[in-house]
Automatic annotation (TrEMBL):
Lineage: Eukaryota, Viridiplantae, Streptophyta, Embryophyta, Tracheophyta
Alphabetical list of SUPFAM superfamilies matching this protein: alpha/beta-Hydrolases (SSF53474)
Name assigned to this protein: Fungal lipase-type domain-containing protein
Keywords of this entry: Chloroplast, Hydrolase, Lipid degradation, Lipid metabolism, Plastid, Transit peptide
GO process terms (BP): lipid catabolic process
Source species: Triticum aestivum
InterPro entries linked to this entry: AB_hydrolase_fold, Fungal_lipase-type
GO molecular function annotations of the record: phospholipase A1 activity; phospholipase activity
């Protein structure tokens, strides 16, 4: 769905919100039983078990004392999350493995840990930045409105401590619904391709940020579709073995939803942006960065974040990174970067075998954040963990019954109806809105706010759609360097190291 509203001026509106003596928004949690170790998993159905406060551990009211007023973001702006989340005080340096799910987030969700909350907001903002940088104007020449060199400052995340190294593009399979917007292409300056769509980016932490967070972090962000719930039209597709899409999983019982895998692996040799599939683009970039920094003796993590359709792509991508060994550095003696997914509002992606290999054999961690009123995380699937105990679900999968799906990872469920700032509405798109999820964690959402807060829908807009007035008085789109959106020249080199293309 579309989440065009941006939270770059959170403090402007958050400061104006009244101080209410009401209970804070609450989170419904679903967690695994305590794990024996960081690598241990128990495949059991996860159902709502209890309710916990949205305030952080150090904000929770003491027992037997009067409850505090609602705790909402008061002076946080994009770019200051390091100070607000506890990253700058050195806490994350020693705790980042715990925050990234080493112990399946046991003890961090009830109430939500302050440092974890800050990290979820930070990575959620990365997913939102994919929307904010997508150029919706059909007359533009550009796939992404901002160059990677100034990407974070352009979307209002200056100072976040990461640099974009690669933009990601996807193309629709011939039998797949179009996930892009048809663009006008001037014949004399064909910068945009109608078959290629900007869908995310890869970024890496700066030296200063790396020192604060305790390791070099490679972040991969995926957006959802650019129109509301457009992708649901493809949820009728069948489960198919991952191996049919070129992923190196030899077990034919490991299956994913066909439409998601098609978008992840499809490419168009005639398209400038999609000469390589989204899969090849991200694997080559992750492999290059892991090898560069692990080869220098640094500890490295790979964090994948997303929203909506992007969640499905992120789950397949995280699986693929671990399965292909893109997170392994040969020059560092086989050092392996921890892979974690922070997912927002995602659908089910695969069957029980996909889940078991993802969580168990590959050891990828995933924390799924959702709104209990959102319908998207409830699809697809006829036989799911929501209706069958896991042993019966596995049996149904083994019998080859159709539409057997299972969610992955630990679930953190939010409830927007308990927020004092959000209005009652029947608009399902609001329930799915990424900004609404960030509000329930610690932010706010403009289109979903009560009318008395006087925040207009879609308030963040670029004046004149990015056009500027030239010296002769004409309004024109400013020129951008062509090399900004080219695929890196060494893509084939890193794909060859992973065995995905022949060595040249």
């Amino acid at each position: 769905m579309s989440t065009m509203s941006c939270s770059s001026n959170l403090s402007m509106y958050a400061r104006s919100l009244p101080s209410l003596s009401v209970p804070p928004p609450r989170l419904l949690l679903q967690q695994r039983p305590p794990a024996a170790s960081c690598a241990a998993y128990s495949y059991r159905p996860r159902r709502p078990s209890h309710v916990t406060s949205a305030v952080s551990t150090d904000e929770a009211p003491p027992a037997n004392k009067e409850k505090k007023a609602a705790s909402f973001v008061g002076d946080m702006e994009r770019g200051t999350l390091a100070e607000e989340s506890g990253r700058s005080d050195g806490e994350l340096t020693s705790r980042w493995r715990e925050i990234h799910g080493c112990n399946d987030w046991q003890g961090l969700l009830d109430p939500i840990d302050k440092t974890l909350r800050g990290e979820l907001i930070r990575y959620g903002e990365f997913a939102q930045a994919c929307y904010d940088s997508f150029d919706y104007d059909r007359y533009t020449r550009y796939a992404c409105r901002y160059p990677k060199e100034s990407f974070f400052s352009d979307v209002g995340l200056a100072g976040v401590g990461y640099e974009v190294t690669c933009c990601l593009y996807a193309t629709s399979h011939i039998s797949f619904p179009s996930f892009g917007i048809r663009k006008h292409n001037p014949s004399d300056d064909r910068m945009w391709s109608e078959t290629g769509t900007f869908i995310g980016f890869v970024a890496v932490s700066t030296d200063e940020e790396t020192a604060r967070i305790g390791r070099r972090d490679i972040a991969v962000a995926w957006r959802g579709t650019v129109t509301r719930l457009e992708w649901i039209a493809d949820l009728t597709a069948f489960l198919k073995p991952l191996s049919q899409f070129g992923l190196p999983c030899r077990d034919p019982r490991v299956k994913v939803e066909e439409g998601f895998a098609e978008l992840y692996t499809s490419k168009n040799p005639d398209c400038k942006y999609c000469k390589y599939s989204a899969r090849e683009q991200v694997l080559a970039e992750v492999r290059k960065l892991v090898e560069r920094y692990a080869g220098q003796g640094e500890e490295v993590s790979v964090t994948v974040t997303d929203h909506s359709l992007g969640s499905a792509l992120a789950m397949i991508n995280a699986f693929d990174i671990a399965e292909t060994g893109a997170n392994v550095s040969p020059s560092a003696g086989g050092a392996k970067a921890l892979v974690c997914v922070f997912s927002f509002s995602g659908p089910r992606v695969g069957n029980t075998k996909f889940r078991e290999r993802f969580e168990g054999e590959l050891g990828v961690k995933a924390l799924r954040i959702l709104n209990v009123h959102d319908t998207v995380p409830k699809v697809p699937g006829v036989f799911t963990e929501a209706v069958l105990p896991m042993p019966l679900l596995r049996a149904a999968d083994a019998l080859g019954l159709p539409s057997v799906y299972s969610h992955i990872g630990v679930e953190l469920a939010l409830d927007h109806s308990l927020s004092p700032f959000l209005k009652n509405t029947l608009d399902l798109a609001n329930y799915h809105n990424l900004e609404a999820h960030l509000h329930l964690l610690d932010g706010f959402a403009a289109d979903f706010l009560r009318d008395e807060h006087m925040v207009p829908p879609g308030w963040r807009q670029d004046a004149n759609k990015g056009m500027v007035r030239s010296e002769d008085g004409r309004w024109v789109l400013p020129h951008r360097p062509r090399h900004v959106e080219d695929h890196p020249d060494d893509t084939d080199v890193h794909l060859a190291q992973l065995g995905l293309v022949p060595a040249s």
